[in-house]
Amino acid sequence: MSSKITIIGAGSVGSTIAYTLSGEDIASEIVMIDINKEKVEGEVMDIEQGTCFRDPVSIVAGEYEDAKDSDIVIITSGIARKPGQTRIELTQTNVNILKQITPEIVKAAPKALYIIVSNPVDIMTYVFTKISGLPENQIIGSGTILDSARLRCGLSEHFKVAQRNIHAYVFGEHGDTSFIPWSAARIAGVNVDDYYEMMPGFEKLDKEAMLTYVQKSGGKIIANKGATFYAVTRGVCKLCSILMAASESVSTVSSMMHGEYGIEDVCLSTLALVGPKGIHSKIPMTLTDEEVEKLKISAEALKAVIAQIEL
Questions:
Q1: So what's the architecture of 145-306 in CATH?
Q2: Which of 19, 21, 38, 274 is the most exposed place for a label (fewest CB within 10 A)?
C-alpha cells in the first residue's frame, strides 16, 4: 500500500502513531510536524533508524507545505490538562492551537482525509468542521474508537472469548457522558443478555461497572504512568488502514450530526461507514428510547461546552 500520512504533533500520541505506522504497510511516506523542531527531528531520527527491518519508507520532520498531496492528516496537537485547570480552560487552549494549525494544513493538503485525535476530541472535531471549509466526509474524529476498544477488552476478559467475536460499541461523547447501547451488544451474533442462557456458568455482567471501567480507564492509566498513547495509537492506525482500504468498514467515529436521533449541530460518536472517501454515511442503528435519551444528554453536555468557547 502506497500512501502519504502527515502527523501534526510530536507528543506521546503523535510520535507513537508515527512509530507504529513505520512498522506497518499502511504508509510509504510519513511527515511529522511540530512547533518543537528539535523534538520532532529527534523522534524522526529515532524512528527512521529502525526502518531497515521493513520495506523502504520515508519519514521526515517537515513544515506545513511538506504535507502536500497527503492522503491522510492526523492532528494530535494540544496540551494535557494541568492541575487546577478547568475543562473549559483546557478546551479553549486546545481550540486556539487548532485555530492556528487549521488554515496552514488545509492550504497544504485540501484533499486529505483528516483524523482529529486532539482532546476533547468531539469539540475539536466540531471546531475543525466549522473553520476548515472542508467537506464533512473528509473529517473524522477518533471519537469513541478507544472507548469501544476498552469495552471489548472488558467483555473479552469477563466472558473469556476473543475480542474479535465481540461486537459492542460506546456511543456519544469521548468522555463522562458516553454510554453503551446494550441492546446492540453481541457476542458471536448473540445478545449479551441471551449469552448467559446459552453459556451458563458466567458471573452476571455488572453493566454499570463495565461502563465505569470504560470511562475511567484513561484516568487510571494516566495516574499510573502519566499518559495514555498505546491503545489510542492502535485505534488511529486501524482507522488509517480503513481509510486506505478498498471498501467501507463500520466504526464509532465522531462527526457532525444532522438530525440523527433528533440531534443537530454537534459532533459525537455513533456508527458510521468509513472508507476510502472518508465518512460515507451514518448507520441508523436502532436504539431504545432510554438509549436515545442518553445520546441526547451527551449531545447537550457537549453543546454546553461549545457555548462557552470562542470559535
A1: Alpha-Beta Complex (3.90)
A2: 38
Average pLDDT over residues 116-124: 95
The Cα–Cα gap between 85 and 82 comes to 5
Would you list the domain boundaries of the chain? 4-141, 145-306
Give exposure, 199-233, as e/b (b: 16+ Cβ within 10 Å).
eeeeeebeeeebbebbbebbeeeeeeeeebbebbb
Q: What is the pLDDT of residue 84?
A: 66
Query: Catalytic one among 158, 174, 258, 280?
Result: 174
| 4-141 under CATH 3.30.1360.120, yes or no | no
Q: Cα separation of 122 and 120, whole Å?
A: 6
pTM of the complete model: 0.94
Sign of CA dihedral 256, 146, 301, 125: negative
Residue type, 222: I
Q: Would the annotation count 69 as a binding residue?
A: no
Q: Is 149 annotated as a binding residue?
A: yes
pLDDT of residue 204: 85
Contact indicator for 109, 70 with CB cutoff of 8 Å: yes
Q: Do 252 and 269 form a contact (C-beta atoms < 8 A)?
A: yes
> Within 10 A of 177 (CB to CB), how many other CB atoms are there?
18
Helix (H) or strand (E) holding 190: strand 190-191
Does the annotation list 218 as a binding residue?
A: no
